[in-house]
Amino acid sequence: MPNIELNAPRLISIEDRGKPYSLTLRRIAKKDWLRYFEGILSTSENQSGKRVDSFDSSAARLALIDDCLIGASGYTLPQGAAVGANDGGILNVEGWRALLPLSHRLGAANAVIAVSQSDPKDEDAIALGVESVFLDAVWSADADGVMRKFHGLRHNFKVPTAEQQRRISRDSSRSRVVGGSRNGKTLWLGAQPTLAELYDELIVSVEGYDCAGESLADSPEKIAEWMDTYHKVAAVDVLFAPAAPKVEEDGD
After folding, report:
1. Cβ atoms 59, 108 nearer than 8 A
2. Other CB atoms closer than 10 Å to residue 13's CB: what's the count?
3. β-bridge partners, 138
4. How far is 223 from 201, CA to CA, in rounded Å?
5. What angle do CA 224, 227, 232 make, to 5 degrees?
6. What is the DSSP secondary-structure string of 169-221?
7. 131-161 pLDDT, tens per residue?
8. 58-68 and 102-112 helices, crossing angle to 10°
9. What whole-number distance in Å separates Cα of residue 113 and Cα of residue 92?
10. Of the candidates 4, 35, 61, the residue with the CA atom closest to the CA atom of residue 226
């Protein structure tokens, strides 16, 4: 499988009722991702003496897709004419983004945040001074319109310092109380901007990513400039997660 191309639009393919549709997104820039993270609502409040937590990212996901959509195909225009992949017809429809099915836009949003930790590629002992994180991710449809998952995307980091760990711990607990201290609601602000900053400070090399057809490989400056911010956040979140100690239960 070829590498992920970071400097190119992303084509999200969706099949609905047996018919193919596609949504084209421009490159999602850092400012787009930071706006998305800011739009996530994570709250805690006291209701009848009990703490109630709530989390919602759906509105933020829709806003992200609507901001980044540059085309769509497979749909029928209001006049009944089919929209081709290159005729630009849908772009002439006023407010066309909001007319696309909600389920399709949410599906596209779910695709661009489909990033998770994966198992290491090798079984070698961990080298001192380097920490590697592996991710699995959905990115863009291929020439046949098929969405595939990339496995084992590797991010190699310098070992974080204690001060960098303190920054994560501090910013992960940031909050703001609205509505007063007695009946107020706590808004958790999230540490994603800090995670992205730490990525740029710690990254050494990557595997599985290209920029304009050239491998980023061992260029920390280019990696920091072009790496998808959501991938940065996902990788550093794994980097700072504690390893699980091996504990064996005593048999009775």
Report:
1. no
2. 19
3. 149
4. 11
5. 85
6. HHHHT-EEEES-TTT-EEEE--SHHHHHHHHHHHEEEEESEEETTEE-TT-HH
7. 899 999 999 998 888 899 999 999 999 999 9
8. 90
9. 29
10. 4
pTM for the predicted model, two decimal places: 0.84
Token output for 214:
């050239």
d(CA 202, CA 126): 17
Both tokens assigned to 19: 């018919």
Closest CA to 24 of 93, 82, 111: 111
Residues 82-94: b if buried by 16+ CB within 10 A, e if exposed: ebeeeeebbeeee
* CA distance linking residue 184 with residue 155, whole number of Å: 41
CB 42, CB 172: distance < 8 Å:
no
Q: Give the helix, strand, coil percentages of the chain, each rounded to 5.
A: 30, 35, 35
The pLDDT of residue 74 is above 80 = yes
Tell me the per-residue pLDDT of 59-69, one tens digit each, with 9 for 90 and over.
999 999 999 99
- Which region, left, alpha or beta, applies to residue 109 given φ > 0 means left and ψ of -120 to 50 means alpha? alpha
Give the residue carrying structure tokens 């006049």.
79
Cα separation, 167 vs 53, in Å, equals 24
Average pLDDT over residues 223-239: 95
pLDDT band at 186 (very low <50, low <70, confident <90, very high): very low
| Whole-number Å distance between alpha carbons of 36 and 62 | 9
